[in-house]
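Appendix B, example 12.
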Amino acid sequence: MTYEQLRAIIIAKMMTFDGIEQERIDYLNPVVRFTPPQGGAWCRLYIEPARPTVQGLCEPRARIPGTIVVQCFERTLHQSVGLIELVDKLVGHFQFWSAPGLLCREAQLIDMGAHDGVYQLNVQIYFVAG
């Protein structure tokens, strides 16, 4: 599996997520710039591949582990119920999901706290591809 194939599969899955309007998701597309909304929650998708590992010695194949990171934001100084509910929906959407050549594993919540009036929670979903 190529890195572009991996990116396309993960973005396609995120585009089926109905826990937030698609206009509120930043896909880090340099062609279409994202402007965070003035109110409510929004997300940013980031795919972080790790060092590939070899699977099998007779017919070597690389397996790519990594992390899907969905950063969730809301303009508030405190963690809100709405933000937690959004995170729960993201975990349900990605955790243990699989596609041909991709297996998502457990999800982890990381509380990043508030900065400049924006509260951030990150959902990290570990995956293996290849």
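The radius of gyration is 16 Å. The longest strand covers residues 61-74.
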